[in-house]
Amino acid sequence: MVACQRCGQVHPQGVRYCKRCDGPLQSRDTESLQKVWAWLIAGMIAYIPANLYPMLLTNTLVEHTESTIVGGVVDLMHHGSWGIAIIVFVASVMIPIGKFIAVIYLALSVQRRSNSQQHERHKAYELVEFIGRWSMIDVFVVAILSALVQLDTIATINPGIAAVSFALSVIFTMIAAQSFDSRLIWDADRMQNE
Amino acid sequence: MMTSQPAAMARIISLALTAFVMMIAAVSFPFLTLDAKGLHNATSVVDAVLAFNEGYAIPLAVAVAFFIVVIPLIRLGALIYALGPLVREQPPRAGAKRAFGLAERLRPWSMAEIFIVGVTVALVKVAGLAAVTVGPAFWAFAGVVIITVLKDQMICRYSIWEALEQ
């Protein structure tokens, strides 16, 4: 039997399109892991310039400063805005890196046909899929700041190149997580029983 | 769904219509204004998108426009199109399944709520530098986010797929 991933309707093996919602049916996405690795590696590569180059370019009457992702967090801590500093740090550093590690772990465990902690791995996958999009916070912060702070000579803020590579990194890792076919986690059991 | 189907659908549609209208208000009115040392700058949601309007960043401007305005609007429009006839207990429109499928598939890419959190962070960052006033569009946008969350919680997609099958 094959269940439609969109609407839950169950079909006999071999049917190609769901008779209820017309969605494509597949027992397992056999190319899932290839897609996951490709998008994940692209995401990790894009994350490197995102941290090396400046996210924000600030010009005031007296100085010109460029701040990176981590630099922005440090600035916030110096201003005493601990809560906001933690939000930005979690969204821009902890979530992306945690997501890289989680997706690598999930993909490797499926490749090794591990059958331990299957439920926990499913939960980890759901968490990764749910939380990944929140990394975009920093991109929107840059957008708002650059639009808002445009006061001729007194102060202007402009986006740096890191904003683009950071956004790309988030988009690539979101696609990586979506390409992972979580049903593959169950297959290790079947292999051992056969 | 606990209530009878047409009533539940009617509630979802009314929330979707409200969110749609508020989103249009959120795009048209001033979002935030900044005052510092006699200088004044008003920003709309469109200006925030156009912040990336420089050479290499233009694709990002397009992406941000889709994430915070276009995709939420497409999702709401598709939902209204797919569920509208069901409220009046008429057979579904042609392409209703495709429309509802699209609304479901775009869900992770609709980032209005993340944008609002981003705005809050930006406000804290600017607070020391200048006086920021919140405009009507800000409240409209916050309304869109809350109504969308309510609407998404009410949707039981399995019941809707079943209803669309008839």
Automatic annotation (TrEMBL), chain A:
- Which InterPro entries does the entry link to? PqiA-like, PqiA-PqiB_transport
Q: Where in the cell is it found?
A: Cell inner membrane
Q: Where are the transmembrane segments?
A: 36-56, 82-110, 131-151, 157-177
GO cellular component: a single term: plasma membrane
Hydrolase as a keyword?
no
Q: Which Pfam families match?
A: PqiA (PF04403)
This protein is called what?
A: Paraquat-inducible protein A
Q: Which organism is it from?
A: Yoonia maritima
TrEMBL record, chain B:
Task: Specify the superkingdom.
Answer: Bacteria
Q: Which residues cross the membrane?
A: 12-32, 56-84, 105-124, 130-150
Work out whether the entry's keyword set contains Membrane.
Answer: yes
Residues in a coiled coil are none
Query: Carries keyword Amino-acid biosynthesis?
Result: no
* Keywords, in A-Z order: Membrane, Transmembrane, Transmembrane helix
Signal sequence residues: none
Q: What is this protein called?
A: Paraquat-inducible protein A
The record lists the organism as Yoonia maritima
